[in-house]
Design a protein that fits this description.
The protein is of the alpha+beta class. The chain has a single domain, classed as Nucleic acid-binding proteins (OB fold (Dihydrolipoamide Acetyltransferase, E2P), Beta Barrel). The chain contains 3 helices and 6 strands.
Length: 137
């Protein structure tokens, strides 16, 4: 489509650039997380952030010696979680859960959440990365 109006051409250019930046801003599972560093721990949810492009669950892990670590668990997008039946009533602060996932490549206390097991035994698939281990086809 050719337009003689500079504002239309400029708008199309900015839209194309914006789409390009958003594609580059989203990184694959393997870029940030290590499939060879699985994590599994019991934790208490302290915060749930329903933000794009990934929801984040902040949890506290209490060790046998009484020390506490804070972990950030990356989940799929809020829309993806809602489609799987996960919402603000499903995952709440104070809930004791079991986290299964894969630790960040840099060793930080961050993980891509694969499964979150709720107190009643319900297992939720969290990951939004199509290249994450165990991701549905």
């Amino acid at each position: 489509m050719h337009s003689k109006h500079p504002s239309v051409r400029l708008g199309i250019l900015f839209a194309a650039l914006g789409a390009s930046f958003s594609v580059h801003a989203h990184h694959a599972f393997a870029a940030n997380f290590d499939a060879n560093r699985p994590v599994r721990f019991e934790a208490v949810i302290t915060k749930m952030e329903w933000i794009n492009p990934h929801a984040w669950i902040t949890v506290e892990v209490t060790h046998d010696d009484g020390s506490v670590e804070e972990w950030m668990i990356e989940a799929g997008s809020p829309n993806m979680l809602f489609r799987r039946g996960i919402n603000q009533n499903t995952v709440q602060p104070g809930m004791r859960v079991i986290v299964d996932g894969y630790q960040a490549r840099n060793g930080a206390r961050r993980a891509n959440g694969r499964d979150l097991t709720l107190p009643d035994g319900t297992k939720l698939f969290l990951s939004g990365a199509p290249d994450a281990p165990g991701a549905p086809p």
